[in-house]
Write a structure and sequence with these properties.
heterodimer; A: alpha/beta; Rossmann fold; 3 domains; six-stranded mixed sheet; 17 helices; 20 strands; globular; B: mainly alpha; ABC transporter involved in vitamin B12 uptake, BtuC; two-stranded antiparallel sheet; 3% strand
């Protein structure tokens, strides 16, 4: 780090989509042989900015300099010519090809295509940087972490000197993250420049040399990581001081509300997506569900909500008003409601499942209630009142209640959805990744709403991905792994490492 | 690195244009119509020696030249509007019903059969009722069959409904062969003498009843889609099947019910065509309106009242093109070519509504030019 030489310089970069300014007059410098973190909340324009360097988008204004020379990057191919490689958040690999085949894909070479020779070449790259991977393994047989490794090797093999990683840790376990960071540091030793896009403060502090912060598309500033701490970075990101603690109360008068007993569920290929799952959710507590994404979280919630057919097992609901126990197994959402079960569900896919993007807020309120009454026609007065109440109480930022929800920002969409689900005064509230894509302030609004519901005696099932948040917010955490439960722990005493190990140990028996 | 520095900004870039004001969008559409008419005029004037002013006069004359022409135009608009209304509920549900042509034909066939077989036993209002109900049922069946397979086996509805068209056409051809043993393939006017099963004239004009019935349907469909629970369910299923399942809508039921409605209204269009307009039937009775209706509905963004405008524009242009072809003694195909050009422009204009075309800015151009000059200088050194 003795002599600092810039690898990429951006000057006055702007990009807008329609009327939305994604980037406004951004200046940024990436030096040779450093790890630069680009920090910003969701929607602050981090990915857009990097996409302009990697040739996905073309800037409306501004200049890009590489090694001091002005360049024009029109396509990912151009970016590769300048030795820039990007690893996208959603991997761009072909499932039925092997790792080696994916890596050589798209490289133009004269003469006959020789996969054996190419594989040997790739192996050299792997050895140089210390990657351990089977290059003849097919992508669909790989774990998320292995796929990410393939993506990294792909850009290195093409001779990239500048690597851009978009939210590389989002899908990894704590152990895998540690491994990834070691790889990044190793690449830095080889003189590569690395840019990681992230919104997680602790990762920034752990791995980067410098941090550049973006807020609402604008460049805020760059500081050396050694001089930064979580509070100063948050302040740069959000623009004002925020207090980051969740107020966790002890559960009161907790009684069993939902009892899941040995449920099994198979997908179309006949593999178990849920295997022998049993647990109890209690009133007045938040039960967290942790696990690598795709371990059966979605199927479990959908099974309880009546959207997933079960092979076997039972789901019992203890009605607090009548004291009766109802079996919800294989009932449709309609039948569950008719039983008087007040079950609310905030699904992972907000605009694709929980709401209808093209409808306005009022019509989205109606989703739950439009059947009321015997008239063949709709009644929009009550939903309108509800919409206006939610806009006011949850501080939803929208021109009015007639705005289509897809035009709202991620945080406001989630407020509308959570607001509607809470409005039906549920006794069980299931939420899946409720703060994904939300800015810090909106996230805390959601946590507070959940805590309020908990205090009023609702049984909350919270599927989350941020282990820090799960540990801070929940009362108990259930870890699931490949469709089975690998452990239920007390959130007040557990650690991230313990959860990380449970996430990768197989839950229950594998299907034979 | 030498070749890399030569890269410059692409000449044309496209960007999404989400928030275009509706009036601007309509300006673009009307502009496209104007350009297409000018192009048509240019082609016709170039190929023949017709005066351009004559061209436009004939175009307008086609629809407004006489009272008879005006009412003929009104009935064309009404039928096109009726079929457009029919496909709209299905389209809102994202069920791509390309089978309106066949659904209209079977409706027409049902009416014609009633006129042929029942004219000796009943007449007047009871006959109209039977004709109407039979057409509705026939259209409904033609709509429900593909819906059933879509709902239960996830078959592709576009292909399925399209194939059903051919079955309908062959069915009509078969019935014509039964009714006309001579094999002339033309049924001729049914009940020419008695006029049994003909919708009566109103205010001394034919087709008025057609227009009134279609206006009523327009209003009903508008209310159905916007204010009824069924209409709401259609929107939810169309926007996202997952959301529909999530809130407990029976998706299969909605698909079947909506296609029944869609087919039924097509059946009504068939009834109006035979009882009100043609008093006859052929495989050409629907005349491609089943496909044109898709465009009418789409251009109107599925709003029944806007469809009144779009169906008028399309009919007006189509009749105008036909009028030009016939009054200047041009070949029939000329009308089809002209209509084709106009429709191509209308559909093409949607691209310019959804996307903005950015040309390379002058500044950037100069910049690269300077660079290239500098490079060439360096080269000569």
């Amino acid at each position: 780090m003795a002599n600092i030489v810039p690898a990429i310089e951006l000057k006055g970069i702007s990009k807008h989509f329609g009327s939305v300014m994604a980037n406004k007059n951004v200046d940024l410098t990436v030096n040779k042989g450093e790890i630069l973190a680009i920090l910003g909340e969701n929607g602050s324009g981090k990915t857009t900015l990097m996409n302009m360097i990697s040739g996905i988008y073309y800037p409306d204004e501004g200049q890009i300099f590489i090694d001091g020379k002005e360049v024009t990057i029109r396509s990912p191919k151009d970016a590769f010519d300048y030795k820039i490689g990007m690893i996208h958040q959603h991997f761009k690999l072909i499932d039925v090809f092997t790792a080696a085949e994916n890596i050589v894909l798209g490289i133009e070479e004269k003469g006959r295509y020789d996969i054996k020779k190419a594989t040997a070449e790739i192996q050299k790259t792997c050895d140089k940087f210390g990657f351990v991977i089977d290059l003849n393994k097919k992508i669909y047989e790989m774990s998320v972490s292995e796929k990410q490794t393939v993506e990294i090797i792909k850009v290195l093999y093409r001779g990239a000197d500048i690597l851009i990683l978009d939210e590389p840790t989002a899908v990894l376990t704590p152990q895998e993250i540690t491994k990834l960071f070691a790889v990044l540091k190793n690449m830095r030793e080889h003189g590569k420049s690395i840019v990681i896009i992230t919104h997680k403060l602790n990762e920034v502090l752990e791995v980067s040399d410098r941090v550049s912060v973006l807020r609402k598309g604008e460049y805020i500033g760059t500081i050396n990581t050694a001089e930064a701490d979580a509070n100063s970075l948050t302040q740069m990101m959000v623009g004002k001081k925020v207090t980051l603690n969740i107020d966790r109360t002890e559960p009161e008068n907790s009684v069993d509300r939902l009892k899941v007993e040995g449920i099994n569920c198979r997908n179309r290929e006949g593999q178990f997506v849920l295997h022998d799952i049993s647990f109890t959710a209690k009133s007045g507590e938040i039960l967290g569900i942790a696990g690598i994404s795709g371990s059966g979280q979605r199927e479990l919630l959908e099974a309880i909500a009546g959207l997933q057919k079960l092979d076997s097992g039972d789901i019992f609901y203890m009605d607090p008003e009548t004291g009766k126990t109802e079996d919800l197994r294989n009932k449709t959402p309609m039948q569950i409601r008719q039983l008087g079960v007040r079950l609310s569900f905030v699904p992972e896919d907000r605009l694709g499942m929980g709401l209808v993007g093209n409808m306005d807020i009022i019509d989205n309120m109606m989703l739950r209630s439009y059947r009321k009454g015997h008239s063949a026609f709709l009644e929009r007065k009550e939903p309108k009142n509800l919409a206006e109440r939610i806009i006011k109480d949850l501080e939803v930022i929208t021109p009015d209640a007639h705005t289509p929800v897809r035009r709202l920002s991620g945080g406001n969409v989630q407020k509308v959805l959570v607001g509607r689900e809470i409005a039906s005064s549920p006794t069980v509230l299931m939420v899946a990744y409720p703060v994904r894509g939300l800015d810090i302030n909106s996230s805390y609004t959601i946590y507070n709403l959940l805590n309020e519901q908990k205090k009023s005696g609702v049984s909350i099932i919270f599927v989350g991905e941020d282990l820090d948040v799960l540990i801070e917010l929940c009362d108990r955490i259930m870890v699931i792994s490949s469709g089975g439960i690998s452990g239920i722990v007390d959130a007040r005493t557990t650690t991230k490492e313990e959860l990380g190990i449970l996430m990768t140990t197989s839950g229950g028996e594998k299907n034979g | 690195m030498a070749d890399l520095t030569k890269k410059h900004e692409p000449l044309i870039r496209l960007s999404k244009n989400d928030d275009l004001a509706p009036w601007k969008a309509w300006c673009i559409r009307l502009g496209a119509v104007a350009v297409s008419i000018l192009l048509c005029a240019g082609i016709v004037v170039l190929l023949t020696d017709i005066n351009p002013i004559e061209f436009f006069k004939e175009m307008i004359d086609g629809s407004f030249g006489s009272t008879r022409k005006f009412f003929k135009m009104l009935q064309e608009v009404a039928i096109l509007l009726c079929i457009s209304l029919a496909v709209t509920p299905a389209f809102k549900m994202k069920f791509w019903n390309t089978g309106a042509e066949g659904q209209v034909l079977v409706g027409a066939l049902a009416t014609a059969a009633c006129m042929k077989y029942l004219c000796n036993s009943i007449s007047g209002l009871p006959l109209f009722l039977v004709m109407f109900i039979c057409s509705v049922l026939a259209g409904m069946v033609w709509g429900i069959v593909p819906a059933f397979f879509k709902a239960h086996f996830k078959t592709n509805e576009t292909l399925f409904t399209l194939m059903m068209n051919y079955i309908a056409i062959q069915l009509v051809a078969f019935m014509i062969a039964v009714w006309v043993p001579s094999g002339s393939q033309v049924v001729g006017v049914i009940n020419r003498e008695t006029k049994i099963g003909w919708l009566p004239d109103l205010f001394g004009q034919k087709y008025i009843i057609n227009v009134i019935i279609v206006l009523v349907i327009t209003l009903v469909i508008y209310i159905y889609l916007r204010y009824s629970k069924h209409g709401y369910e259609i929107s939810v299923v169309g926007e996202s099947e997952n959301t529909a399942r999530y809130i407990g809508i029976n998706v299969k039921k909605v698909i079947l019910r909506t296609m029944a409605v869609s087919g039924a209204i097509c059946g009504i269009a068939g009834f109006l065509l035979v009882a009100g307009t043609d008093h006859s039937i052929s495989t050409e009775t629907a005349g491609g309106d089943g496909f044109t209706a898709i465009m009418v509905s789409w251009l109107a963004k599925f709003n029944p009242f806007v469809m009144m405008v779009t169906s008028f524009i399309i009919s007006f242009l189509r009749i105008g093109a036909g009028e030009i072809a016939s009054s200047f003694n041009l070949n029939e195909s000329v009308a089809e070519i002209l209509t084709g050009i106009i429709i191509f422009f209308i559909i093409g204009s949607e691209f310019f509504i959804n996307y903005k075309v950015n040309f390379r800015t002058k500044q950037a151009k100069e910049h690269t030019e300077v660079k290239q000059i500098e490079e060439s200088k360096e080269g000569t050194k």
